[in-house]
Amino acid sequence: MALDHDRPSVLDVGGGSGRIGELILEQGASRYVDVDLSDTMLDLARERLARFDEKVELVQGDFLTTPVDGPFDVVLALGYFDYIEDAAAHLRRMRELCGGSAVASFPRWTWTKGPIRKLRYEVINNCPIFDYTEDGLRALLADAGFAGAELHTGKSGFLAVARATT
């Protein structure tokens, strides 16, 4: 598949209900692929994105093992790395499928939000959560084959924008 930067192809890792996909397709993306574990979320995406017809592919499965036809101009992982134990493997897979840029969000520990998240997710719901540091993120992205990572710091996390190295 050729990359078309005027009408980019987009892979949304853990894209769930397709909220981001709807916005991307409205802005002219040529192709949108949402890979998610949840059939329920993909059913919501199917309804939300039905009007975009053949531009949309919804894939249920584990991102690390599910076949996906790339490369993509843009690979997104927003709200995904909060719950991913092996971030390095997921970033390497993102890099394999990325022919342009990757955009991903990563939570970071804060004293205002961190203890509540730990209690809510890990203690009450038995769902491990993960936090990242700027240095750790830079190393993870570089090791996965991404170059020139820009890290934007928000109140509770980072937004990473990185280019695939050639």
Please summarize what this structure is:
This protein has 166 residues and is α/β, with parallel strands linked by helices.
Description:
The chain has helices at 19-26, 39-49, 87-97, 114-124, 134-144, and strands at 9-13, 31-36, 56-60, 72-77, 98-107, 146-153, 157-164. It is an alpha/beta fold. The chain has one domain (9-164): Vaccinia Virus protein VP39 (Rossmann fold, 3-Layer(aba) Sandwich), CATH 3.40.50.150. Strands 3-2-1-4-5-7-6 form a seven-stranded mixed β-sheet, with helices on both faces. Strand 2, helix 2 (39-49) and strand 3 form a beta-alpha-beta unit. Helix 3 packs across helix 5.
**Structural Rg:** 16 Å
Give the averaged pLDDT, no decimals: 87
Secondary-structure-based class equals: alpha/beta
Number of helical runs?
A: 5
The CATH homologous superfamily is named Vaccinia Virus protein VP39
What is the general shape? globular
Number of domains: 1
- Helix fraction? 25-40%
As laid out across the biggest beta sheet, the strand order is: 3-2-1-4-5-7-6
Portion in strands? 25-35%
CATH top level assignment: Alpha Beta
Write the layout of secondary structure elements.
Blueprint: E1 9-13, H1 19-26, E2 31-36, H2 39-49, E3 56-60, E4 72-77, H3 87-97, E5 98-107, H4 114-124, H5 134-144, E6 146-153, E7 157-164
Parallel strand pairs: 1-2, 1-4, 2-3, 4-5
Antiparallel strand pairs: 5-7, 6-7
Helix pairs in contact: 3-5
